[in-house]
Amino acid sequence: MSIYALSSLIASVYCFLIGFIALFKKHNTQVVLFSLVACGIAVWSSYSFLSQMCPVDLQLPIVQSVYAVACIVPTLFLAFVLSVLERPLWCRSIQGSLAASVFFILSLLSNRLIKAVHIINGASSLDVGLLYAFFVVFFSVVCGYPIWLLFQGARFAPPAQKNKLKYIFLSFLVAYVSGGLHFVSVYAHWEPVPHDVFLVIFATIFAYAVLKHRLMDISIVIRRTLIYSVVTGTLTLVYFSIVILLSHVLKGWMRSTTVLSYFAACVIAFLFYPVRSRVQRFIDKRFFRDAIDREKMLLELSDEITRQKTPEEMSQPLAQVFTDAFHPKRMVLYLRSPEKGTFHRVSSISPGFDDEMPVENPWTSYFSYYPQPLLQNLLSMHSGTSRAEVMETVAHAMRRLQIAAAFPLLSPRDLLGYLLIGEKKSEEPYNEEDLLLLRNAVNQMAMAYERYLLNKGLQEAPQTLQKMASSFVHEIKTPMANIKMPADVLKLLLADLASGKRSLDDVLPKLRNYVDYIREQTMAASDKVDAIRQMSKQQKEHFVPLMPGEVIRTSLATLDQIVRQSQVTLEMDVPEDLPAVLGDARQLGIVFMNLAKNGIEAMTQRGGCSSRCLKIAGRQDGEWVIVTVSDSGPGIEPEDMNRLFNAYFSTKGTTGTGMGLFLAQEVIKAHGGTIHVESEVGQGTVFVVRLPVHTLPSGGGTSV
């Protein structure tokens, strides 16, 4: 068997496999079209192997049959790309391509496309007719057009879609190059490198994208032993391919091909084990233990959970993170319902779980004694304790529900819920890093649900108490949320340091930055509590002359992390020489921070322009200092304009307390100023704050 026939066989098998596996895992139009394209490419790439293995009298019929399938591949590829880009399938381009495909298939019957097949130096050579040149043009145009569409789509698509289009474009670009090399070999009757090698690369890129990034929403979980076996088999094929290739290339230089083959075999055998070990370590790092970017995942999860309005919506990003990271066989999240006094199921990825659980159940009994994660393999440690009966009940429940671990959602006073998670589909055990990620993610969910319950309870409180408590909750929740996330990341960094995955020199600068940030947020929380307490006294004795620019810059510094995560461009146009105003720096800082935070959330959580820009400008207008905070978000509905500054009114649903703008208006009124809003749906929003100019006495200074 020549190297060309071998590469043809390998490429054909790889393409068939990826096509059938995709079809087995998913059955929508997009995946079906891809499977047809992959199988069509597999048939086309097999012609070299089939033509060399079959009898001479069957070579031409077999190659013509293969080319009959090849004629339809460009049309299928065009349809696949149109489905990926969510464009109409039955369009003029498809109709024209399909007509051309039928024409070329019919031309095969009259031998006007392919006349004969020859084997030259181990490679299949075609004697083509006049229409073959038109087939080359047809292939180049019909396949080149969707590749260009993929390139354009990957450039301008949103981030979630861009990664998907990037891998599809890259893989099919490699396949397109393989087709081009095939046509060159047909006319030149010479092929320096088997073009089917590029089809192996095409299949490898696509398989990597499916396994690592769930391309086309195809989720495949593989066992470590299976992928090691595939890698070993692939390396063995590469081993034989190199031996055959060396024999083919160097046979003219040495008289004895046996000696040459023996020498090549010894060299490759010597290198086989270290190469396999390196590939195995790469697979471990890329697909298994280190596949989770835990810091990034926690940051994104925290940001996503806080955007949601209901417990059901909060649980969706949590379930998605666990599914992507661990691929558990079973998982369910129960949250406590204050109204019913039960635990209700808000999310699950497998059947067999009750919709509601009573307050007294095996899990709550365990967590009341041991408020910490529960692992099935550690239950035996409690078998001889006074709580043995509880342990036995929990063990029975874990076996019945096939649960590997349970995590409590705890508040300082109560159990808010619990997460039950089964074994991984890969059958790997959860290691310490996995458990740390699970625990931190569950803590994020507990904080979000506790805030939801608190806001819901405040809506039923007496009006005076409600306003005081809501003001406190509104202002304290941002620094507290900012503290929780760096603290969780600090634990991850320390775990990496303890396990030796990172060095002290690498971790120490991050530790210092996070500790400094936590300290700053703690001081900010304390300042806000003092500011709210002073607001309730309605006293102006503590007002001092302030420079507006310094107050604005200091208050916005607390939003640095939110600005970075939201990918918002912040533009400041506040002159340093703006005249002073009389007031409380902390109270005014709360106003400007709330206005900026509302603008960021409007652009990121409720849509808006693709260009996210927050502009803060200041100017003097006679006896007034005017500060404007404008965003490029979706704007405010006309019916909401008159209610924006009312207490408890919020456009954020249950995630908002409805106190931010109310507090801002109260503060500005106490400072003798005004605040109003200008907005148009689809055009963004502008808040305008007017504060009276304070004339400094001669020789006076300013204070912030």
Descriptive overview:
This protein has helices spanning 3-25, 29-45, 47-53, 56-84, 92-109, 131-156, 159-188, 196-213, 224-250, 257-287, 294-307, 311-326, 362-369, 388-401, 432-458, 463-499, 504-537, 548-556, 560-566, 585-605, 660-670; strands at 114-120, 123-128, 331-337, 342-348, 356-357, 374-375, 405-410, 415-421, 544-546, 569-573, 581-583, 613-621, 624-631, 674-680, 684-692. The termini are far apart. Mean pLDDT is 76; it is low at 287-292, 461-466 and 698-704. The protein has 21 helices and 15 strands. With 704 residues, the chain is an alpha+beta fold.
Quote the distance from N terminus to C terminus.
Answer: 84 Å
**Helix vs. strand class:** alpha+beta
Strand elements, count: 15
- Trace the largest sheet across and list its strands: 5-4-3-8-7-6
User: Which parts are unreliable, with pLDDT below 50 for 5 consecutive residues or more?
Assistant: 287-292, 461-466, 698-704
Radius of gyration using CA atoms only: 33 Å
Number of helices: 21
Major β-sheet annotation: 6 strands, antiparallel
Helix content: 55-70%
* Shape, principal axes of CA atoms: globular
> What percentage of the residues does DSSP assign to strands (E)?
5-15%
Mean pLDDT: 76
